[in-house]
Structure prediction request, 334 residues.
Amino acid sequence: MKTAIVILNWNGRPMLERFLPSVVANTTGDAEVVIADNGSTDDSIEFLKTNYPSLRLILMDKNYGFAEGYNRALAQIDAEYYVLLNDDVEVTPGWTDKVVALMDSDPRIAAAQPMLKMFDRRDHFEYAGGAGGYIDKLGYPFCRGRIFSTIEQDTGQYNDTRDVFWATGAAMFVRSAVWKELGGLDGDFFAHMEEIDFCWRARNHGYRIVATSDAQVFHVGGGTLPKSSPFKTQLNFRNNLAMLYKNLPASRQRRVIALRIVLDWVAALSFLAKGNWGEFRAVFKAHRQFRQWKPALQAKRAAIQPHEVDCVYRRSILVDYHLKGKKVFSELGF
Prediction:
């Protein structure tokens, strides 16, 4: 099989009912749609068996999270390309063909993404991926089309195909041989930033990550963990530090992580000042878990052999955004 489009489901019956029809209708040629269920307790499986009896189901015994859930599911699928697709994404005709053709053109492309736009504001980019992801020198992620909370309208400014630092996990095409070479996602992350970590590891191994506007999809976003979730905050802060520890070159690792810890506590105090006790505690939990993880992270780091890679914004996006007023990607001069 050429392409496996794999949707990881966890209690997502409403999303499957709403968005799966577009995926099935726009899956043609040597491609298959697979639903991997992360131990759902709703009626997702009954819905799928009744309404999509021909779709392949992979059933897991519990919720392993996004990262390990995909690791376990993809280990059971034989395809040249995997597509990790969120259950709240509407796809468009020919979307897989165009991205697969791009990846076929260069075996060094490990992962790629279509343009990601908002489902309910279809002329705007979507938070989780936009037109391709980047990080700054301190490891803060942003996208073409979205920097922090500023989301751009799509006026054709990113109509191209170009190398980026990371591809969104909401609709990420991955070469299966590279997935296996790198060991898939870091299952310890559970959710959030696992795709950035994967793409960084791929870059450390000499592969390319690409975004293209030749295909586009529409994403709702925030369906599993809402933006205000303390657990989501904990995962983001913890996993970002873990990702930096694993992938930064030795010359910058200690300095960057020390500064990020200080900046994390500035963010935590900001949460506290706003009365968000749950978010404040989440930062504390994230740092505690990061310290506990360090021995395991050191072993993972040894397998990566980090070095300087390109597509990193060599300035601080925090400074440029908050102090210099650079709110959109085109203003960064990047």
User: Anything to note?
Assistant: Residues 129 and 168 are 5 Å apart (CA to CA). The longest strand covers residues 208-219.
